[in-house]
Write a structure and sequence with these properties.
75% of the residues lie in helices and 0% in strands. The protein contains 19 helices and no strands. Helix 3 packs across helix 19 and helix 15 crosses helix 17. The longest helix has 41 residues. The protein is globular and about 65 Å long. The two termini are 14 Å apart.
Length: 424
């Protein structure tokens, strides 16, 4: 346990160092120095995220394929997948309702009284209309090599589902060698992740320092009402998820929460739930979840169980409406939330995806897309919360499904993966 706490300690120390260094550079240096510092220090964050992305595609493919093949019959695969999708949709609805509840009570956009712009504003986001055709085109890969090259998790998941189901239908006699080989691949990639995690504290320092150097600590005070309300919604969503988890897992949910603190903290400080994927997979297995269930459910959750994005979309869309004094009826709000939920399912893996979903959706409800500019300056701080709760939500969902399938706390051959924490 001592080793397990070292990464957390290093992350907190380097995060605080990033805040202090960024504030000092913002206050006591010139704009040229700030720009040079931000441009160069973020190289550490870029390297870390690139290393993580290097691991993600082979890890998702190998673990998901092995999980499906080991589940065996297609009936079992369909049952577990069906349960997962029901929970993912339910958790999305819960998250949206929590975001709406907080934003309606706090009214963070009230009193701004912004004038609706006469002309459209370029937000700089690559926005395309959300259509069924576009969703399916994004979901179905034309090439698994291309999907892996672009790190399209949703497309990798779809291919792995077909590949795994095809392998499972052949029976253990034929697929056993492939299962064994892919299992080795997954453990190798987890070992590689262990080496990559040595870079995490430095990457976190760089990310935080760069943002604070550019924006200063004052940006947090200027948006205190919005950020405070948003994180209140994030916290309440966490409590709701833990309450539901307690119904299924009982007191074990607190042990799960303790074991997930490292991947949640990594996701929070790097603003990337992908960065926490390998560690989340490992911790869920150590918690006692069947590796087959974890390997099957977790990758799907990363595409469909974006509870943090749902909180953000509901909170931010109503904040912008309030800022422009736009009053929506109950029916309009309901349709808006449903549209946001459906749109988010097809855009997993897109940079700043929550902003892209907002920009593509709110104009249809006569909410000015220019309102997104109000949030772009603090999006990094908001993305930290989105990423963290996405990891927690997927962890709880996976553990609940493992319990429901009677595959929790089984005797497993848990290999040392090398993701043990940074040595002092």
């Amino acid at each position: 346990m001592a080793n397990a706490n070292k990464l957390t300690l290093f992350i907190v120390i380097f995060m605080l160092a990033g805040i202090l260094s960024g504030a000092a550079i913002h206050s006591y240096t010139s704009q040229d120095t700030i720009a040079a510092w931000s441009d160069n220090i973020t190289l550490l964050t870029d390297i870390f995220l690139r290393l993580i992305k290097m691991v993600i595609a082979p890890l998702v493919f190998s673990t998901l394929t092995v999980g499906i093949m080991r589940l065996g019959e297609t009936a079992t695969i369909g049952r577990v997948g069906g349960k997962a999708m029901i929970w993912f949709i339910s958790s999305s609805v819960l998250s949206i309702l929590v975001g709406l509840f907080i934003v309606m009570i706090e009214q963070p956009g009230g009193g701004l009284n912004l004038a609706i712009p006469a002309e459209s504003v370029d937000t700089g986001l690559a926005v395309t209309g959300m259509s069924l055709k576009g969703f399916l085109s994004h979901t179905i890969p034309t090439s698994i090599a291309g999907a892996m090259a672009d790190n399209e998790i949703l497309q990798i998941v779809v291919f792995s589902l077909f590949f795994g189901i095809g392998g499972a239908s052949l029976g253990e006699k034929f697929n056993a060698p492939l299962v064994a080989a892919l299992d080795v691949v997954s453990h190798i990639m987890l070992k590689v992740t262990g080496y990559v995690m040595y870079v995490a504290p430095l990457a976190i320092f760089a990310a935080i320092s760069s943002v604070i150097a550019n924006e200063g600590l004052g940006i947090l005070l200027h948006y205190a009402s919005f950020i405070g309300g948003y994180y209140a919604a994030i916290l309440m969503t966490c409590l709701v998820l833990l309450a539901v988890g307690y119904v299924v897992l009982k007191k074990e949910v607190f042990r799960l929460l303790s074991m997930l603190k490292d991947p949640v903290l990594v996701a929070f400080t790097t603003s990337s739930s992908e960065a926490a994927y390998p560690k989340t997979l490992e911790q869920l297995t150590k918690f006692g979840c069947s590796r087959n269930i974890v390997s099957f459910v977790l990758p799907i959750g990363y595409s469909f169980n974006l509870v943090g994005s749902m909180v953000y979309c509901s909170f931010a869309s109503m904040f912008i409406a309030q800022a422009y004094n736009i009053h929506l009826s109950f029916a309009e709000i309901s349709v808006l939330m449903l549209t946001l939920m459906l749109a988010s399912k097809g855009i997993a893996g897109v940079p700043r995806s929550a902003l892209v979903v907002l920009a593509a959706t709110i104009p249809s409800f006569n909410i000015p897309v220019a309102g997104i500019l109000l949030l772009m300056g603090i999006d990094h701080f908001l993305d930290m919360g989105r990423s963290a709760i996405n990891v927690l939500g997927n962890g709880i969902a996976t553990a609940m499904l493992a319990q429901d399938e009677g595959q929790l706390n089984e005797e497993e051959d848990v290999h040392e993966t090398g993701t043990e924490q940074v040595e002092a």
